[in-house]
Write a structure and sequence with these properties.
The protein is mostly helical. It has one domain (about 1-490). It is built from 22 helices and 2 strands.
């Protein structure tokens, strides 16, 4: 801790602070543009960092990695388009609050929880990284299978409201779409129907943009013929009230912080899994407010936003201790470390380099607040424009975001197709969030199950052989029972 405090003052020189802040503003821009993920933001900033000193380069890369995750919640709140996959969970309640004229208030709460979640994640990273890293490395294929399956069922049960069977239908559709393309283990084509454009599969980012963004445009255009569509209002900007909301739901914040830290430490889990897991746990542990989730509940904003930045921090646990990146963002940053001769492991902490990295991560959370306020204010002005201009900007963002990932017009057509599908599903009262969750977690469930069965020579009993698998399987079964029993009780009433 003493080394950490000594490292912080050296970060406030102009040579470090100026590129650091510029990189974070760049992260706000990229993260808030649908389709341009946090991974892309970090990858784009890396070439610029090579011409700077080591300290400034590390500050830029680490700053962007945290900023882009928060920035994805800005269009999710105002436009119902998640900027990054980790923002999909926050879309449910934040956009409903924006429709009630509390958009900026929701984003300010979001910003505070993101910064506090990041601080908590970094502090936990400093003290418990060796222990958590050992647990994460010890996870087998079946353990990850149950973890992903549990995250899937939590997301389905929470986002489906009173009709979990429809949520299960949506998740199954997502799983089916994710299976199109090449088999992840054998590389054989499947379900492509002879179309070369489907060989690489249906990418979930264009699908996500279409479901949440273009479907809203199609609905608004249809409503213009019958009535004037609802207009999103940015709303007031009350810092004291936002602090009061965070303090009032502080137990939810702590619970989500721990959830994000644990999930983020598992290689391959990522901030999106952490956000959905925290959202689901918050709903399950809030019986009085459970019916309000998805309708503008503040806990539905606090939980995922606290967890995803904590997950970004804890993803560094296996990276710093064992050199195993927890997600794609950490993998890129780890490559930057190696360029500057920073080797993960015991020597990282004994040499004092670990304290310097922790200092950068902590100060980044403080700088996230002014950088985030810039992004909130910019988008607040955007939604004040006439409704037609806002819808046009949504279309532009959607097309650019879908095309930018792989420079493919196929992704644009996928986005438009999923926009029409999203409109049809919502008219049938089928929730959209489980479909995206199925596309994200479905392939992981399949791969981990098949890898485990291959390693076990087809012995199905091995699926619950380890103690971790048994615990996760038990929680999964309990969640299913509670969800179905709650539905039966509602039907009886």
């Amino acid at each position: 801790m003493i080394e950490l405090l000594e490292a912080i003052p050296s970060l406030f020189s102009l040579q470090i602070l100026v590129p650091w802040l510029l990189a974070m503003v760049f992260g706000i821009f990229v993260g808030s543009t649908p389709g341009l993920t946090a991974t892309m933001a970090v990858a784009l900033i890396v070439p610029f960092s090579y011409s700077l000193e080591k300290e400034a380069a590390l500050a830029m890369v680490i700053g962007v990695s945290f900023t882009a995750i928060f920035a994805g919640d800005i269009p999710a709140t105002f436009l119902r388009i998640p900027g990054t996959p980790a923002s999909a969970a926050a879309t449910l309640d934040a956009h409903e609050l924006a429709k009630k004229g509390q958009g900026r208030q929701a984003l300010l709460v979001n910003l505070l929880c993101s910064a506090l979640g990041g601080v908590g994640g970094v502090i936990l990273l400093m003290y418990i990284s060796p222990a958590l890293a050992k647990v994460a490395v010890g996870f087998g294929a079946f353990d990850y299978f149950w973890l992903c399956l549990l995250g899937l069922i939590l997301g389905v049960s929470v986002s489906s409201g009173r009709r979990p069977t429809l949520g299960l239908l949506a998740a199954s559709l997502g799983f089916a779409f994710a299976m199109i393309g090449r088999d992840p283990l054998t590389n054989q084509e499947r379900f492509t129907f002879g179309l070369s454009s489907l060989e690489e599969g249906v990418r979930f980012i264009p699908a996500m943009i279409g479901l949440f963004g273009m479907s809203e445009v199609f609905r608004a255009v249809g409503n213009m013929e019958r009535r004037r569509p609802d207009r999103i209002k940015a709303g007031p900007f009350r810092i004291i009230r936002s602090l009061g909301l965070v303090l009032r739901h502080f137990p939810t914040f702590i619970q989500s912080l721990l959830t994000g830290t644990i999930v983020g430490a598992l290689p391959g889990a990522g901030a999106d899994v952490a956000a959905w897991g925290a959202y689901g746990i918050s709903e399950k542990t809030s019986p009085k407010e459970s019916g309000n989730f998805g309708k503008g509940e503040w806990k539905g904003v606090i939980a995922p936003t606290s967890a995803n930045n904590a997950a970004v921090a804890s993803a560094w646990i296996p990276a710093l201790v064992f050199g195993i990146p927890g997600d794609a963002v950490t993998a890129i940053v780890l490559g930057v470390f190696l360029v500057y001769d920073i080797t993960p492991g015991v020597e990282l902490f004994s040499s004092g380099q670990g304290s310097f990295i922790f200092a950068i991560a902590l100060v980044t959370q403080l700088l996230l607040i002014p950088a985030g306020l810039i992004g909130i204010q910019f988008f607040s002005q955007l939604v004040r424009l006439p409704r037609g201009m806002v819808l046009t900007s949504v279309v532009v963002f959607s097309v650019v975001g879908a095309f930018a990932m792989h420079n493919s017009m196929v992704d644009v057509w996928v986005m438009l197709a999923f926009g029409l599908l999203g409109l049809r599903l919502e008219n049938a009262k089928v929730p959209l969030a489980p479909l995206i969750l199925g596309m994200i977690l479905g392939p992981k469930v399949e791969v981990y199950l098949r890898q485990g069965l291959i390693a076990a020579n087809g012995d199905v009993s091995e699926i619950v052989a380890s103690s971790v698998s048994m615990v996760l399987a038990g929680v999964f079964i309990l969640t299913v029972i509670l969800t179905m029993s709650r539905q039966l009780v509602r039907k009886e009433r």
